[in-house]
Every structure is written in structure tokens, then in C-alpha cells.
Fold this sequence. Notes:
Layout: H1 2-22, H2 25-28, E1 36-39, E2 45-50, E3 54-61, E4 74-75, E5 80-85, E6 100-107, E7 112-115, E8 123-124, E9 133-135, E10 156-162, H3 175-188, E11 193-197, E12 200-201, E13 214-218, H4 225-237, E14 241-246, E15 277-278, E16 283-284, H5 291-307, E17 312-315, H6 318-322, H7 346-362, E18 367-370, E19 392-394, H8 397-408, H9 416-424, E20 432-434, H10 439-442, H11 449-454, H12 457-460, H13 470-489, E21 493-497, H14 527-530, H15 536-553, E22 562-567, E23 572-577, E24 580-585, E25 592-599, E26 603-610, E27 628-630, E28 640-646, E29 650-656
Parallel strand pairs: 10-11, 10-21, 11-14, 14-17, 17-18, 18-19, 19-20, 20-21
Antiparallel strand pairs: 1-2, 2-5, 3-6, 4-5, 6-7, 6-9, 8-9, 12-13, 15-16, 22-23, 23-24, 24-29, 25-28, 26-27, 26-29
GO molecular function: 1,4-alpha-glucan branching enzyme activity; cation binding; hydrolase activity, hydrolyzing O-glycosyl compounds
Organism: Papio anubis
Active site: 316 (nucleophile), 371 (proton donor)
Amino acid sequence: KNLANVRYKQFSQILNNIGENEGGIDKFSKGYESFGVHRCADGGLYCKEWAPGAEGVFLTGDFNGWNPFSYPYKKLDYGKWELYIPPKQNKSVLVPHGSKLKVVITSKSGEILYRISPWAKYVVREGANVNYDWLHWDPEHSYEFKHSRPKKPRSLRIYESHVGISSHEGKVASYKHFTCNVLPRIKDLGYNCIQLMAIMEHAYYASFGYQITSFFAASSRYGTPEELKELVDTAHSMGIIVLLDVVHSHASKNSADGLNMFDGTDSCYFHSGPRGTHDLWDSRLFAYSSWEVLRFLLSNIRWWLEEYRFDGFRFDGVTSMLYHHHGMGQGFSGDYSEYFGLQVDEDALTYLMLANHLVHTLYPDSITIAEDVSGMPALCSPISQGGGGFDYRLAMAIPDKWIQLLKEFKDEDWNMGDIVYTLTNRRYLEKCIAYAESHDQALVGDKTVAFWLMDAEMYTNMSVLSPFTPVIDRGIQLHKMIRLITHGLGGEGYLNFMGNEFGHPEWLDFPRKGNNESYHYARRQFHLTDDDLLRYKFLNNFDRDMNRLEERCGWLSAPQAYVSEKHEGNKIIAFERAGLLFIFNFHPSKSYTDYRVGTALPGKFKIVLDSDAAEYGGHQRLDHSTDFFSEAFEHNGRPYSLLVYIPSRVALILQNVDLPN
């Protein structure tokens, strides 16, 4: 509690300092309005940079024939530099839209460095060039948003997406392709939130968007900024909110087209020396205590909210930010000494509190999610209580548990208590996003759940014309069960990585030297679900109906489930949530007639979801017209119970039909 007070005090102190020195966080977070290069109302140009280690700063480009020194910036206090170029006599545009620019830095050691402004809004790689070019983005007509932001959903069902790999063709897909072809699928599947990866510009495609070079630029490899705005706007028109995967945990080491060595020193935006480098990621680490770094990062958050109308963020690499050891070589046991002590980077934590404060002050309906593997307490508690201010955290132990079970245990040795513990082990009032697998599990070197289950048979036996082999049967049944129990029991939100909902075969691998720059594994084969002769459609149908049922019944926004049974011998798990009765039989071969299951509710029950149904590739062993009546017969600590037939490898949801909906 004392530490929470200390953290809140540090946050308040910096917020007050911002108020006294900058006129408040509202003004402070609009750095992009003055920094960078801007066309003035009079037709002139105003430019501003922060380059504390520079000897001189100049602007050059197509507009002045690339003369490096004809437009020097004037030195201001605190390492800032500014330049005003008056308009031409004929009032024509000084720097036309799409023309190339560079900031020239002369360093203290006499070097002449060509740099891209950290505030650049559009950068492209042309032809066979190694580095990106900075293009002045000032279109005559910018995209006008037509739709308002949807209200914050009570339940979060997230479709984690990457624009570039969203087509089945061996190429980088576009914003336009995603808008026209993928958004309708996401809507149909019942997801109400998209988490967009790899949007902030990154020079290296195979970094999956995690080595950022230009923080204010939407990646040009998929299209223009205006086309990204159209994507977000179209999602909004469908009632889908869009979160940005924001990477403020580190930055690319590139200096020619990144932030590194911007002013000719190894510090500027980063810590100098070893503290400024992440050994595992080979990237630079921000100096979160620096005033101008705070301005840059908070303005970056605001830019994506205001310019592109994102509805919030998934913060990447929070564990690396929170600790000086960056989580490397650490197994977190949950002992409080691991979260409070000198190993915690309090400056980084304060930055995250400021970012959450800004996001929720500007747009109270926006959502922030923390990717933290350490389980830092109070990360999702309100800032006023000394918490981090996030809305949700990712339940990162759940996918690990499924992979461990699939890799190391026979089905008959799966421990029901262990599964339930992993799915329910979360702190009271800290909301979690549950997922069976995300992009992490799909990457080369690992395998998706579907591939762990069915492996090589996916190449030969996914056609409905081929035999329904034991491997494919097991794979299809467990794939659905794993998803439903994770969805129903694991959190207050649910996440799925694109394509995994239908058991996308193989893995993800971006074009790189090691695979001869191949796009073969950097694509998503959505057409597999449209083919009536393939079994992928069964998994797709189940995912859709599971999401739509959640939309109707709202179990994600209901209190945690009451688990009435986890029977090791029978391999049965039963729980109640949102007035629904969930029943899972993980036994590979045993079915149970007249199995007694406890419930809190009297009355008549009907099956509302059955993984064994024909449209989900099941064996149709249950009659959906059956009425189940609960009687006042206490069972497993519940006042009522009912008898139900539970076939092997089946997941069921029963709903009490006597209750008003």
C-alpha cells in the first residue's frame, strides 16, 4: 500500500510539473503540432526538432536541391531547434506533398548526418533501397471520417490482426484488401474488436512490427495514411473498435531511418551506455525520465487516437519496461518482493501511468491492455489507487498451459484441476484477456494448436472426402473444446489471432534471408474456410457461434464462473457463468449417460451450444430437442442438479429457458 502511494505521488508530481511548465498534459501531448515540419497558414514552413547533442541542425530535400546547409535551424533552450522558412513571393507551396526531406545534423565530432525527423508522418522504401525515405505528407484532401466511434463493448472479443499477411497471395497485403476482404469476415465471426499489429513503421518486415523506426508514420508497405483511416472508419461502421499494438518498450537500432543516434550521440531519446540497449532484442531503450522523451511518447499515443481514431492500445513489452532486468532470465513466482524493489524501473511505470491517464482522460471509452508476463500487482488497478491504470492484462499463462498439455501429456493424463487453476488464477478485480493462442504461438519455431493436434495429417485429411481419421477427429474436437473453455472460464475478454479460429495450417514466417525471402508462410489462407469440401469450415462455424452466443449472454462481462466439478477420473469439468451451464468431457473414449451436474437454478434447460453438432464436424450424439429439468437435489455444493448425457470429447452449454432473457 505504501508503495502504491509512492507510485501515485511520483505520477502526481510529474503531472503537476507538466501543468506548471507546459500548461497541462493536454498541450504537452500535442507535440506533433509543432515538432516536425508544418505548412503555416501564410504558406511558409515551420520546423522544430529536439537534438540536444547536435552542433547544428539543417533542413534539406527536393525543395532546395539537396543543399545540406542552406536552411539552418536556430538553437533554443533545452536542446530544441527551430526553423521558419517564409513563403515564396508567388505563394506557391514551398515543400510539395510527397517531396523528399532530410534533417541534417552536424555532430560535435564534426560528422554530417542525414536523418529522418522522429516526427515524420510518412516514410517509404523505394525500389532496391536499403533505407527508408521521408516524404512530406500534406495531401490536398485528407480522409474525412464518416462514422462515430462505437461505444465501449461490455465484453471484449478481440481479433488480433496483421494487415500484411491477411491475403492468401505471396505478397504484402494492403489496407484496402483488409478493409474489403477481412473486415466482413471479422464481423461475421462475431468479434467486436480488432487489435492491429505492425502498423507503426518498421524497416524490417520480419520483425513482425516490433522494431519501430518511425513512430508517427503508419507503415507505407500496406498503403497510405488515408487508407488506414478508411480501414478504421469502416470497422467503426460495423460496430467494431480498433486497438493499436503500440511499441513504446524499445526502438530499432537503425540510425539512417530510425531514432537511434538522431543527434549524433548514443543518448538523445535513449539511455546512453549499456542501460540504453536491450541485449536480447538488439534494440534501444527509452529514457522515460527525460522530459522530451515523455513529450514524444505521450504525443505519439495521442496522435494515433486523434489522427487515426484508434480506440485504444495493446502495450507491447510491458515486462521489459517495468524492470531493469527486462524480465530476462526471470521466473516470476508471484512473490511480492519481485514486484517492489530496486529492480523496478519506476520511471517507466510512471510513464505507463501517464499514458493511461492521457488515454482515459481524452477518450473515457478507450481501452488499454498490458502485455505483461510478470504479473505485476495493481497494473490494472485505477491510477488513483496507485495502480497502472490499464483496463486489461493478457492472461499469458493460458496459451503456455495448452501447448504444454499438447506437447507433454497424453489426453488421458490431462489434469482437470490444473486446467481449471490456470484458467481461473487471476486477481480479483483485475480484468484479463484470455486466449488459447496468439501470434506468439503461430511464429516459426512453434506451432499453432491445430498443428500440434493434427500436424502432417492436415495436408492429406482435411477434405470431407477423405477418411475422418482418429487424428483429425481428435484435432477438430479438442480445438473447439480448448477454445470454448478458454473463452468461458479464462477471463473478462477473449483474443484470437487471425486464421487460428479455423485451425490455419502451418506456422508464420516472414520473408528473410534464412528462407530465401519467401512469402509462403507470411499469408493467411481464408479461402480454406469457404471451401465446402474442407473441414476448416467446421471450426470456423463453431468460433462464430461461440462468439455470437457470448454477445447474447455476456459471460465475459459476468462475474467469474462457479466451478462445481473437476473430476480427474471422468475428465469432466462443469461450471456456471452468466446463468449458463458449461459442461466439458475431455475423456478420449468414455461417454456418460444420466451424468448428474449441479446448478444454482431450478427449471428447464436446453442445449444452446454443442461442439458435437454436425455443422461443427461433430458426431451428432445429442438430441437438441431434449428438455433437461433440474431438481432440488443438492450436488457438488449446488442446490439443484440435472441429469445429462455427455458423450466423449464434447463441450456443451445449457441455458435455463425458464429465466427471462
